[in-house]
Fold this protein.
Amino acid sequence: MSGIHKRTVVGQVVVNKRGLAGDEQADLTVHGGLAKAVYAYPAEHYAFWQAQRKQLGGSPDLPYGSLGENLTLSGVLENAMFVGDELHFPNCVLRVTQPREPCFKLNAFLGDRQAAKKMVQMGFCGFYLAVDEVGTIAAGQTFTVKPSIRQVSISDFFRVATRRDR
């Protein structure tokens, strides 16, 4: 069982404390919960994954949501996002909590036995968000980042969590 298969949703989606309406997580021991209600992934990383698939002889077609994220966002790379930063959308507020650590399901879904390892090597992890203000969200909405005290970046957290610095 896996909740990695995501699809684009048109229109407003309800955002509650546990995540987006209609979304599911299969393994609640590592996904979901209040601190991992929403998973965001930078759109900028998709070119890398598309090239990887093409190199392996697969289709480079990889629609947003293919990395298991609920939100595909532009302009919020891991090295510029910090634990505690807030993303203010028109009708809800989400707070950065931690990076995502890849699992074997990513390998299977992308058809690449090394996908999780590549995610660690590249630092292309994305990040989990808690819902501070419930409401709605829609594809294409703009948002602003309200910086936190900026102590731990997602990149640094991920590097330590995956021991890439040793």
User: Anything to note?
Assistant: The longest strand covers residues 92-99. The helical segments are 46-55, 104-110, 115-122, 154-161. The domain at 13-161 is CATH 2.40.33.20 (M1 Pyruvate Kinase; Domain 3).
